[in-house]
Design a protein that fits this description.
The protein is built from 14 helices and seven strands. It has 327 residues and is α+β, with helices and mostly antiparallel strands.
């Protein structure tokens, strides 16, 4: 299913910028007015951080130099709703260069993947797919100062509670020695490193896989991939179980069953669901629960998804993303 996986890659690139609309405070139009209000906001935020138990000197040294990130300000306010049809991304799909890059990474890091799989039980090809989707194997990590970007987004106020938690998480990971402040570069929305962890995810799931004393998700592939595997494992990854299987449905099948309901595999089989061009549900062990997914209508591909599919969606809650990783 290279074609469908390619579609998914492109959907992810677009859908990654999608946010839910929310009410936010009116912001002055001019950059000068922004700067004035941002400076006042920083003083107020430092007081709130201190009231939560953070060290005044540390917080002040991080927040006061933070610069207003105009990219974050503009994009968070003006993002359009994602409505592009799935098939429009086919021509810009994953190309041979990217696929070959993934194969090279699998070969280059074979020993590292061996260690990661032994520790966390997550297969290397899923980790490599995540790596490719998130940052093109580390080439597109973002160069925004994370502290400035998070401070800007808290100040802007549209998703204040969420980004405030991200900024507090930045303080936590600096305070516990996980990273140095100058390492904190990423997207304007806070995603960092090869596997694009937001600060709260970094704080809770990043690991120093190689044991050198630094959780370096920017330059150390073993740390980045080990952290992604740790995240998936902690969210219930089932070793040896499939993510999804492409299926074919009998004539006159009731497509209302593709509503997210979970049923034992044997019940889907009893309804006439069969593996696509196969007699065997490859990679499926036991009699797991499954959901029917029909992402492109009755004429498109259909899948039975299993528990590991849901785990991937915990990493990025996008159907297209999960299909891209699984494909």
């Amino acid at each position: 299913m290279i074609k469908f996986g390619a579609i998914c890659f492109n959907l992810v690139l677009a859908a990654g910028m999608f946010t839910q609309p929310a009410a936010h405070a009116q912001i002055p139009a001019s950059l000068e007015a922004h700067e004035t209000r941002f400076a006042a906001w920083k003083q107020d935020f430092i007081k709130r951080a201190i009231s939560r138990g953070y060290d005044e000197t540390t917080v002040s040294s991080l927040v006061l130099p933070a610069e207003l990130n105009t990219t974050a300000l503009d994009r968070d306010v003006s993002q359009p709703e994602f409505t592009s049809p799935i098939w429009s991304y086919v021509d810009n799909a994953v190309n041979a260069e990217r696929l070959n890059a993934g194969r090279r990474k699998l070969a280059e890091l074979s020993a590292s993947f061996d260690r990661i799989e032994r520790r966390h039980g997550v297969p290397r090809h899923y980790l490599t797919a995540i790596w490719g989707l998130e940052s093109a194997y580390g080439h597109n990590q973002g160069s925004h100062d994370i502290i400035g970007a998070m401070a800007t987004l808290v100040y802007e106020g549209r998703r204040q509670a969420f980004f405030e938690q991200q900024l507090f998480a930045v303080f936590d990971i600096i305070d516990n020695g996980s990273v140095r402040p100058e390492q904190l570069k990423g997207s304007w929305a806070g995603a960092m490193g090869m596997t694009q962890f937001i600060p709260t995810t970094f704080r809770d799931y990043a690991v120093d896989f190689d044991g050198n004393g630094n959780k370096d998700l920017w330059n150390n592939a073993e740390d980045a991939l080990g952290s992604a595997a740790h995240y998936l494992s902690r969210h219930g990854w089932e070793f040896g179980q499939a993510v999804l299987v492409e299926v074919e449905l009998p004539r006159n099948f009731d497509y209302l069953l593709a509503d997210g309901r979970q049923q034992p595999l044997r019940e889907w089989i009893a309804k006439g669901v069969r593996p696509y061009r196969s007699d065997v549900f490859t990679g499926v062990s036991g009699t797991p629960e499954a959901r029917l997914l029909v992402p492109a209508g009755h004429a498109g591909p259909k899948f039975l998804t299993f528990g590991n599919y849901g785990v991937i969606k915990r990493y990025n809650n996008s159907t297209s993303y999960a299909l891209g990783v699984a494909s």
